[in-house]
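Quick one: structure for this chain?
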Amino acid sequence: MDAEKEISILPLVLVLFLFLGANVLDVLHYPQSDPTSGALFRLHPATYLLFGLWGIQSVKYNTLFNPRSAAVRAFGLVVLLVFVYSITLGKSKANFFILDTLFAPVLLVLLLQDATDELKDRILYWLKVFFVANCGLAILERALSTIILRPTEEAVFESFRSYGLLGHPLNNGLAMAFLTLFFVIISDTTITKFFYLGLGLLAIFAFGARTALGGILLGFPFLLYFDLRNYDQDEAAGRFFTYLLLFFVMLSLCAFVLVSTPFGERIFASASFDDDSADVRSRVFDMFRHFTLSDLSWGIGEDQIMTAMYLEKVDIIENFWIIWVFKYGFILTAVLGFSFVCFLYSLFHNLAVPIRLVLLGVILLIASGNNSMATNTTTISIITLASLVGFHAYSLPPEEQSVHEEDIYRYSGV
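Got it. Here's what it folds into:
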């Protein structure tokens, strides 16, 4: 594939594949979510694409695994180690999600670490298109109380929750919360920042993802504060009042929509944490009393997990850390978790340290409130892709940044 064709085709293909959730794959008769389907369907089509591109790149440059970042390199090796352990010495089943969820982002870094700014800008354009499309679809589904891209088997919720393009509402919540803050960071105008914020919040309400909502509301004020520090005192004061005014306007519009429509049904119903989901999340910790520290050192079998779930009346474990501990044990979970955090932090290396910590905290907060990191999901790949193509302009030196100023503005939503 020559450079011109790569720039015109690859961005759309990458983003398109990554935004094919389980429900969209189901509609396309790719039964990844069906446990009775063959081994071929265990991986997401995007993962096959990335493995193929990795193979082509390895042959072309005569190298197998050469990420420049030590954090990426270590994370990739740890993920492969855990995967090999899980399918050989490990006791748990259904571990192919590791390749989809954790190793595919490493392949994205390998693929794009030397990408041109033009390629990154085109990928960023398609990320914006799909962000708006996914939010719009979620809002439409909530307004109609109908899942448009309906999977064969739906999760059972107390109230309606949109599925959008990424399938399960919790997957959507994590991806859309990050992308909302991502676009707030890279947008240069105040109006664009609040456009993405408002659209993202409405979509989060449609998904009924309360942890994602909390992550946005906690992260957004910090991002605005660090943004104001880039200006002198007088300009910062003017921008602060503009931000405050727009925030209250957006808050009023959101309140009107939530009160006069069913958008906030689940969020309001669960505000007191009196719903089944919150109850299950608290009862899941009672499962640990059925195992000794020795049992959990290197993971336990699927039968033992299911027995403990039955005894504690836990239908689903909505915390990926706990699933990792049960599947791989404390030791491997500690190594995998540390390398995962370092990997995420390395993705934001072009940003100031406080902003990196805010984004990392938001991701870990939201991810720890659901089990998406222990299932087949492209969410971390989406976060990786956005970080690789959206934050690169921040590393340009002043004289080089001025040359690319037009491109930076154009792809910041201005």
